[in-house]
């Protein structure tokens, strides 16, 4: 009686074997030697019968693995050539005769870009691109100018005629925009020289669900303008910070956020874009936590650490209401930065990133030596001491409850 035997065995399992347990929940890790892949893995124990592990994403089965009793090695799912398309909710289910376990994991863009080298704008540019051939295009460029209170007083300068030759194929793609190499043939003097290697970034307004052409152009304009406001405002902040940092001899070189310009392309279907200098060299993103490069090498760098110090300084200066985010670029030269502000905005300025970035920064930022040089206080709660030292009798015993770092207050 096979059936009865099976049932009998099941009873033995249920009564005598503990249910499977989780040793390690799902984690995303790099795949050694393959910078474009990532691996999701977890580990179980107390699996005393043969079992099946099933991986799904958003309900679709991706893999089913049969395993023998007692095999407690890590269970992995490798995602090769990982891209934005692989984002979503992953589930790993273990099923055996004496129990089941379900683990969920949300693969976010942050984690993905942290592990995998994505085809981001300007990522890993090699120097000296080939000569561009193509039609010259007449455009108008405009520079964002600031008055003394740079947050609330920003305006575009009058248009300057310029002429560009742009590559047909984009070389980088971010979440909402594409980057094209372009060569300045005339105009924009003295900011650029003739033949300057530049990058034209075009927002894809279609992905925002706009319908008619008028709406599309309006959205395209708004996005390009927002980009100019954000990056150039961040640039103003870093200028002020530079002056502060340079009062300390030990600080050394200071990172720069490069300026970007608004471009009107009357002859193009998507008429607005931004223009900036092309940064030559390896493009890296710096971790918000410790400034390490977000790639497989995870190099520690002076530029990355100084970026974090700059973020901390702005956070402190604005009492936790504004944060410059997405610190990235080539060495000390940064671009594609973002700004997060508190929900209501800060002094009339609203950023392009979620307010949650500010909380995340507060939770993750680890001060480095450059924070120390500038006298910035740690944002992390001090570890609790196990032994409470007795107060010295000579000192007054005042118990001041200290808040760590500037608190996140919503304005008024
Ligand atoms: Zn710090």
Please report the number of helical segments.
Answer: 6
Please report the total strand number as a whole number.
22
Largest sheet: 6 strands, antiparallel, barrel
Oligomer: single chain
Bound molecules: zinc ion
Kindly name the structural category.
alpha+beta
Q: In what range is the share of β-strand residues?
A: 25-35%
What is the radius of gyration computed over CA atoms, rounded to a whole number of angstroms?
27 Å
Give the overall pLDDT as a whole number: 84
CATH-scheme architecture of the largest domain: 2-Layer Sandwich
Domains, number: 2
Distance N to C terminus? 77 Å
| N-to-C order of helices and strands | HEEEEEEEHEEEEEEEHEEEEHEEEEHH
Biggest β-sheet: strands ordered side by side in the sheet? 8-11-13-14-17-16
CATH homologous superfamily assignment of the largest domain: Phosphorylase Kinase, domain 1
The coarse overall form would be globular
For the record, what CATH class of the largest domain applies? Alpha Beta
Contiguous uncertain segments of 5+ residues:
120-128, 395-412
Helix content: 10-25%
Protein name: non-specific serine/threonine protein kinase
Region (Disordered): 382-412
Catalytic activity: L-seryl-[protein] + ATP = O-phospho-L-seryl-[protein] + ADP + H(+); L-threonyl-[protein] + ATP = O-phospho-L-threonyl-[protein] + ADP + H(+)
InterPro entries: a-kinase_dom (IPR004166), Ig-like_dom (IPR007110), Ig-like_dom_sf (IPR036179), Ig-like_fold (IPR013783), Ig_I-set (IPR013098), Kinase-like_dom_sf (IPR011009)
């Amino acid at each position: 009686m096979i059936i009865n035997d099976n049932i009998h065995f099941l009873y033995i399992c249920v009564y005598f074997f503990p249910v499977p347990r989780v040793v390690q929940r799902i984690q995303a890790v790099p795949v050694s030697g393959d910078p474009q892949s990532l691996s999701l893995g977890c580990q179980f124990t107390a699996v005393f019968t043969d079992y099946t592990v099933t991986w799904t994403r958003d309900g679709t089965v991706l893999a089913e693995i049969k395993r023998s009793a007692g095999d407690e090695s890590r269970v992995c799912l490798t995602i090769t050539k990982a891209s934005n398309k692989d984002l979503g909710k992953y589930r790993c289910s273990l099923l055996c005769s004496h129990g089941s376990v379900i683990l969920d994991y949300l693969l976010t863009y942050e984690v993905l870009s942290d592990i995998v080298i994505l085809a981001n704008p300007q990522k890993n540019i090699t120097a000296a691109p080939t000569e561009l051939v193509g039609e010259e295009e007449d455009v108008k460029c405009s520079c964002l100018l600031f008055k003394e209170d740079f947050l609330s007083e920003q305006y575009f300068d009058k248009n300057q005629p310029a002429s560009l030759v742009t590559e047909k194929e984009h070389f980088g793609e971010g979440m909402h925009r594409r980057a094209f190499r372009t060569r300045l043939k005339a105009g924009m003097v003295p900011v650029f020289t003739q033949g300057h290697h530049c990058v034209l970034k075009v927002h894809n307004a279609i992905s925002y669900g706009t319908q008619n052409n008028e709406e599309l152009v309006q959205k395209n304009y708004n996005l390009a303008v927002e980009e100019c406001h954000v990056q150039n405002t961040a640039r103003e902040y870093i200028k002020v910070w530079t002056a502060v940092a340079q009062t300390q001899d030990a600080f050394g070189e200071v990172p720069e956020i490069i300026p970007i310009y608004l471009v009107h392309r009357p002859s193009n279907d998507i008429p607005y874009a931004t223009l900036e200098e092309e940064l030559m060299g390896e493009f890296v993103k710096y971790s918000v936590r410790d400034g390490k490069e977000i790639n497989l090498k995870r190099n520690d760098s002076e530029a990355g650490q100084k970026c974090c110090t700059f973020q901390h300084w702005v956070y402190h200066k604005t009492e936790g209401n504004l944060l410059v985010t997405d610190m990235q670029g080539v060495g000390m030269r940064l671009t594609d930065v973002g700004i997060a502000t508190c929900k209501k905005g800060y002094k009339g300025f609203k950023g392009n990133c979620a307010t949650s970035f500010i909380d995340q920064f507060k939770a993750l930022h680890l001060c480095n030596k450059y924070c120390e040089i500038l006298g910035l206080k740690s944002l992390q709660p001090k570890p609790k001491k196990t032994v409470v030292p007795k107060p010295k009798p000579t000192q007054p015993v005042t118990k001041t409850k200290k808040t760590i770092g500037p608190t996140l207050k919503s304005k008024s």
